Structure formats: C-alpha cells, structure tokens
C-alpha cells in the first residue's frame, strides 16, 4: 500500500492523519512516509524502499531498530502476559538499575511517557515547595502538559501566554519563559518572584529547538539560584538520559538536580517514562505522601523488559565514544559540503545528536535558531529522502545516529548531502 493512499485514508479518521503533529510533514511539505519495518540503521517504507534512518523514533533507538536482544526480551515477556495492573519483579530491577546508574536518584517512579514524567515532576515540585510558579526556557520542549505549552509573555517579569488553544490564561501565567542561556534574566526573575517559584525545568542539553548546548556556567547558575531560593531544579533528561554515557547528562557534568525526568531510551522503543530524585521529595508521592499520581499501565512488563535490555546493552557495550566520533564525522562532513556549495549552514553535534541549522552559527537560544531558513531545510530533507536517507521532518529537531550506523553509513550520508546541497546552490546560495 502506497504512503499517499494510507495518508488519504488516515486523514478521514485521524486528525491530520497522524497521532503526533510533526509526523504530518507540515514543516517540510509533501506526503509523510509510512514505515512497515526497521532493522539496524534502516527503516522500510510501505513502498518497499529502504531508508537509512537518522530520526531514530526521535531518540529511543540508540541501538538501532529491532536489536535482537531487545526483541527477544519483548517476545519472552509478552508470551507470559502483557499487563497485570499490579507489581512485577522486573520493575524492581529497573528501579534499582536506574538508581545505581544515577547515584543521585534515591527513588524513582515509572510512568508511560516523557510527558507524564514532567507532569509528575511539576506537581511534586509544587507539592513539596508549596509554591506555584515554574520557570522554563524558550525552545525547550517538556511534553504536552498544559503548563508547558506556554510562550514568553510581553515582558520578562510577567507570566507566559498559552501557546495552545485549550490552555487557560491562568495556567499559562504560572510559567515564566526565559531565553536559553540567559543567566541574567533568570537572576532578574528570581529577584522579583523567587519566593513564588517552585522549580526551574530545563533540558540540560536542549534538543527540541535543534541542538543547543548550555553555555559554560549556565546550568551551575540554575543549580545555585534554585538552592538559594528553596526552589527545585528539574533536569528533563527524556532525550539526554543514557545518551552520552550509561547515566544522565547531569551525572556526567557533575551537577545534581533535585528531580530528573527520563523517557525515550529507557524504554528501548516501548512507551515509558520515569521520574526520580531526592528521597525527601519522592516520598511526597502517593501512597506515601499527599501528591497524587497513578497509572494503570505504569511499570508495564513489556516496556520495562525492552528498557532493561536496552540499558544493559548500553552499559555493557558503551557505544558512546564511537557514537560521538560518528557525530563529529557527520557534522564536519556536511559543514564542509555546505561551505563548498556556498550554502549557509552550521551543524552542531554532541554525542549521537546533531542538527544542520540553515543559518550561520553559533545557535545559543531559540532566537538564534529561528534565523534558520526552514525552506532550505525542507529542500535538504526532501533531497536526502530522494537519496534514501530519512532525517527528522522539521528544522528545529535533532538528528540521531545509532550504534547500528557504520562509518560507511556516515560517509554515504556526507557524500549524498554534498550532492543535495550542490543542487540547492541555485536557490539558496548565500
Ligand atoms: C520527547 C520529550 C518529552 C515528551 O516525551 P513523550 O514521551 O513524547 O511524552 C519531554 N521532554 C523532552 C526533553 C523530550 O524530548
């Protein structure tokens, strides 16, 4: 069945034809692909075309698709029943594994998605501190819970405004939105509102405006100002957890947040999320404490089995150095190709993550990222797709390399990118 036909059918009965908006290809145009299977670095479309995948399901597939040990764990677990709605031995193993690998997690609770992890973290922060306001950064994505669907209001010191219909003004106004890496603005907001701020939530490496790294001192500054004001620091590590080492990014850089949100990789491609942190805060969760949280499918045996298999492989195989080398190779390769073609582009990479921004760098926050030419990205995306390479279908996202991608895959990517960028020269030359 052709993708176009499937999409036409889907549009009649699924809003926009998709179960998550970016899949509709609105920012790059054209018909979205339908994938029937994947193996290693490749995915196969419903037309039977093999694509080398640099989207990786938006992050979880760090070991590539259908990794045999993970599939085996899923099969074996599913054969014994897929959900019991009560406790299973494996969830204890998972919680112990997470707390061992991330020593500053005293306790964890499993949920079903990154969004749920964030929702719970924010409620916990409010319950624990008995304060109401949250600080977030423009361009950081924390899932689709109401209080995070907010953009900056008219002034720094006023609350945010809703960025989605259906989110009330009152909810949006409880969240302050600050530019990433703007330590002065954080200081200013805390000077005025510190006594009302329950938490700062941040992606310690930002991935949802494309790749943006924290400036030196930025995360440390957030740690000190929250501690000083009796607010909590929440690291949203849904993308970065187990991405750069078999632990969190916070652990690797030596900054200890009060709460950590996990997702994506820890489910090995199955739906999962986790929230963990200091015992005195985590003990506020029901049934121990007054902050309510629950989930019919939480700690789902199949999801936990897939996650544990993935995490154990990552701990054993430590693909991180090789992933980082491939990331650098890809980034340097396509930056050179863009220079040769006379096209404005900079491609930051960190570990297995990269973003070709079609603008001059560096990109330090959302305002910088917005300078990117999204039409140029769309042309690049479709050019690469014609060459059987699948990138995330939007400029402000991350590309992902998996441990299943070979150096030859990366060389092939660079060579094809060179041709595509050359073809773009006429329209996009700077
Ligand atoms: C993907 C993501 C989420 C949301 O996770 P879902 O599983 O899609 O709900 C939250 N925070 C960050 C940083 C993410 O990248």
Keywords:
430 residues; 14 helices; seven-stranded mixed sheet; binds pyridoxal-5'-phosphate; 2 domains; Aspartate Aminotransferase, domain 2; alpha/beta; Aspartate Aminotransferase, domain 1
Q: What features would you describe in this structure?
A:
With 430 residues, the protein is α/β, with parallel strands linked by helices. It has 2 domains: 3-66 and 318-429, Aspartate Aminotransferase, domain 1 (Alpha-Beta Complex), CATH 3.90.1150; 68-316, Type I PLP-dependent aspartate aminotransferase-like (Major domain) (Aspartate Aminotransferase, domain 2). The protein is 38% helix and 15% strand. It contains 14 helices and 18 strands. The protein has helices spanning 3-13, 68-78, 89-101, 114-129, 169-173, 183-193, 218-228, 249-253, 279-282, 301-317, 320-341, 366-369, 374-386, 407-428; strands at residues 35-39, 42-45, 50-53, 107-111, 133-138, 150-151, 161-162, 175-179, 197-202, 205-206, 212-213, 232-236, 259-262, 273-277, 349-350, 353-354, 389-390, 399-400. The strands form 5 sheets. The protein has a 7-stranded mixed β-sheet, sandwiched between helices. The mean pLDDT is 97. Bound molecules: pyridoxal-5'-phosphate (PLP). Pyridoxal-5'-phosphate is lined by residues 113-115, 118, 141-143, 203, 207-208, 236, 238-239, 263, 273.
